[in-house]
Design brief:
The structure holds two protein chains of two kinds. Helices cover 42% and strands 8% of the residues of chain A. By secondary structure, chain A is α/β, with parallel strands linked by helices. Chain A has one domain: Rossmann fold, CATH 3.40.50. Chain A is globular and about 50 Å long. Chain B contains eleven helices and 14 strands. In chain B, the strands form three sheets. A seven-stranded mixed β-sheet of chain B has the order 3-2-4-5-7-6-12, sandwiched between helices. Classes of the chains: A alpha/beta, B alpha/beta. Chains A and B meet through loops of A and helix 3 and helix 10 of B. The structure holds thiamine diphosphate (TPP) and magnesium ion.
Chain lengths: 339, 323
């Protein structure tokens, strides 16, 4: 289902989804070529959640994100060059090389903190909601986190306060473990919750909660825009669980790209290795989206190809920019400890 | 003596512990962090499905659960993986476990082992690079163990599990590939026995955990300059074998202390204070500390290197106490 948006906006969503996909694929390539070290997490497979959801927000809204932040930042309009420079620890990175992949954030885009502590941002996002209400604005706070974060007590404690005090916060839980992949399969972690559906947890705190297919951009756009409207009108917190199927390249700790994403796969998956074919056919949110764009005659396959080529160019420029950026001077390690 | 790689010795110790004592239950995701050998841990899970359990991401919950289980007769080992996640469980570790025996007037024991991987691991950035040993040392009631060799990790793990006290077992990922002698025989290394890892007459370098290995490398290099460094590894901070440390200090009369805590109120600060109090008259130079600089840990590689207790900073400190 396509979001109910004009054609131009749909194309913009398409560009953002491609940008995230190609950015992450490039990043994995760089890591596997040992051009940077360290642990990182990619957003592949969740593009149709973050991109339409974040498009529903206003410029003044706050967003808090986690270790899996790259997609959120790009969806909000972050410059891929500076994002990549940060992930490589370079001087032109958004955090001057101090944060890296786990902590990239851009305050000018409304991201106060990106935390690598699972559950760490749930109280923070709740606190920002408290502040914007105290300041009598109509801003809202959005908390973007994984299903695993619900296992932390901080989630439950935050839900309680948000509900008691009717705070303007949207909890967008990205459950990337649909079909029991991840922890259940003994590979990458995802949640182990006694509560299922996950929405039962916030519902227990009287927070309106609903599930949505996170690979369906139209459905995500629909529920998020509705939730944002209610929160802005003073209706208190809302919780959305967006379900996605874990990308098979990311089930281990160190991602590998089974096949470079190409729009042609949306119509013919035979080029995809057999083990991963099902995911690219049924669960790849980017391919689902472009297939619909074409089927609903919003764009032609040629136009999709053009968008794809354009974004590939943007990403290779980002790679060039990031590697051209020097490492920060060592002494800068001593700066920024106090305001 | 046979040689083992560190992770092998560690897993061997764990297997021996699980086989020997049915009261041992392990709450762990991998016990080897993100190491490429973490798959080996799955074999242990298969062999002990009822006693090796992957908990939810609920540090305060599973640490507290383990403490309670220990109070009721089990000997749990809890894996916090990255030491920074200890903070999520702080109330249970420092305010429940550490206080249990004392505030019950000696009645309640909480024999849990809290296992974690500390320190600068390369790109861990601010939230995955902590060395909480000094913060924990500030909480009376906790034993604190910092292995630095294949033999020590196996032998100290056994003592940790057999201890009647809550024990913090602080390991370091960068040790995992280290090869070294490990006896075939079952060996429990007693707490409170420092180990002179290298003998030398000019300077005493007291180091913990991975810093022991780093200091041994530096000692090799300095030997080429004609400087004989003695590397002393306390192995456990609580209890502390102060006698062995002081014996070395009295011999060399010059001390450098190397540890990955931040400088202020760190392990090196406490050891320096104790040595200063007990042996001021024995020293021929001020004690030097080489620690992580007092800033949160930056991500970028050259910045991380700059704030770390690097080989060059250790070597400079050794030269400084000799000049
Ligand atoms: C407090 C804490 N405990 C454990 C970890 C280690 N860890 C990193 S990611 C992760 C899984 C998180 O799962 P989820 O929230 O579903 O996010 P996903 O990675 O699936 O997007 C864990 C346990 C952590 N970063 N912080
Ligand atoms: Mg998840």
């Amino acid at each position: 289902m396509l979001p109910k948006l004009p054609r131009e906006s749909l194309i913009e969503l398409c560009r953002k989804m491609f940008l995230i996909r190609y950015f992450e694929e490039a990043l994995i390539g760089l890591h596997n070529e040992e051009r940077f070290k360290g642990h990182y997490h990619v957003y592949i497979g969740q593009e149709a959640t973050g991109v339409p959801a974040i498009s529903c927000l206003g410029v003044g809204d706050y967003l808090f994100t986690t270790h899996r932040n790259h997609g959120h930042l790009l969806a909000r309009g972050a410059d891929p060059r500076r994002l990549l420079a940060e992930i490589l620890g370079r001087r032109d990175g958004y955090n001057k090389g101090k944060g890296g992949s786990f902590h990239t954030n851009v305050t000018s885009l409304g991201f106060p903190q990106t935390s690598g502590v699972v559950g760490g941002i749930i109280p923070l996002a709740t606190g920002a909601a408290y502040a914007v209400r105290a300041q009598k604005t109509d801003r809202i706070s959005v908390c973007l986190f994984g299903d695993g974060a619900l296992e932390e007590g901080a989630a439950a404690e935050s839900f309680n306060m948000a509900s008691l005090w009717k705070l303007p916060v949207l909890y967008l839980c990205e459950n990337n473990g649909k079909y029991g992949q991840g922890k259940a399969a003994g590979t990458a972690r995802s949640s182990t919750m006694a509560v299922y559906p996950l929405t039962d947890l916030p519902a227990g705190y009287k927070i309106p909660a609903q599930q949505v297919d996170g690979t369906n951009a139209g459905a995500v756009h629909g529920v998020v825009s509705e939730a944002v409207k209610k929160i802005r009108q003073g209706g208190g917190p809302q919780f959305i669980e967006a379900q996605t199927v874990r990308w098979p390249g990311g089930v281990t700790n160190w991602p590998v790209v089974p096949i470079a994403t190409d729009a042609a796969i949306a119509w013919d998956v035979t080029s995809v290795p057999e083990a991963e074919r099902e995911w690219y056919r049924d669960s790849d949110p980017v391919l689902i989206f472009i297939r619909e764009l074409v089927e609903k005659k919003q764009v032609s396959r040629e136009e999709i190809s053009e968008i794809q080529q354009g974004i590939l160019g943007v990403v290779s420029q980002a790679v060039e920019f990031a590697f051209d950026s020097p490492y920060p001077n060592s002494e800068t390690a001593l700066e920024d400890v106090f305001a | 003596m046979r040689e083992l790689v560190y992770y092998e010795a560690k897993l061997e110790g764990l297997r021996e512990i699980l086989a020997a004592d049915e009261r041992v239950h392990l709450f762990a995701e991998s016990f080897l962090g993100l190491s490429e050998h973490r798959g080996l841990f799955r074999e242990i899970v298969k062999d002990y499905p009822d006693r090796v359990i992957a908990p939810p991401i609920s540090e305060i919950g599973f640490c507290g659960l383990a403490i309670g289980a220990a109070m009721a007769g089990l000997r749990p080992i809890v894996d916090l993986s990255t030491a920074s996640f200890t903070f999520e469980a702080w109330p249970q570790i420092v305010n429940e476990a550490a206080n249990a025996l004392y505030m019950s007037g000696g009645q309640t024991r909480a024999p849990v082992v809290f296992h974690m991987l500390h320190g600068l691991r390369g790109g861990g950035a601010a939230q995955h690079s902590h060395s909480p040993q000094a913060m924990l040392w500030n909480c009376p009631g906790l034993e604190i163990v910092l292995p630095s060799s294949p033999r020590d990790v196996r032998g100290l793990l056994k003592t940790a599990v057999n201890s009647n006290n809550p024990t913090i077992f602080i390991d370091h990922t960068l040790l995992f590939e280290l090869r070294g002698p490990v006896p075939e025989a079952d060996e429990a290394i007693p707490f409170g026995q420092a180990d002179v890892k290298r003998a030398g007459g000019d300077v005493t370098v007291i180091a913990t955990s991975y810093m022991v290995q780093r200091c041994l490398t530096v000692a090799d290099r300095l030997a080429n300059e004609g400087i004989q460094v003695e590397v002393v590894d306390p192995r456990t901070l609580v209890p502390l074998d102060f006698q062995t440390l002081m014996a070395s200090v009295e011999k060399t009369r010059r001390v450098v202390i190397v540890d990955e805590c931040h400088q202020s109120c760190g392990v090196a600060a406490e050891l320096a204070a104790r040595i200063g109090e007990a042996g001021f008259d024995k020293l021929q130079a001020p004690i030097r500390r080489v620690t992580t600089l007092d800033v949160p840990v930056p991500y970028s590689a050259p910045l991380e290197e700059f704030i770390s207790p690097s080989e060059s900073r250790v070597a400079d400190a050794v030269r400084a106490v000799l000049s």
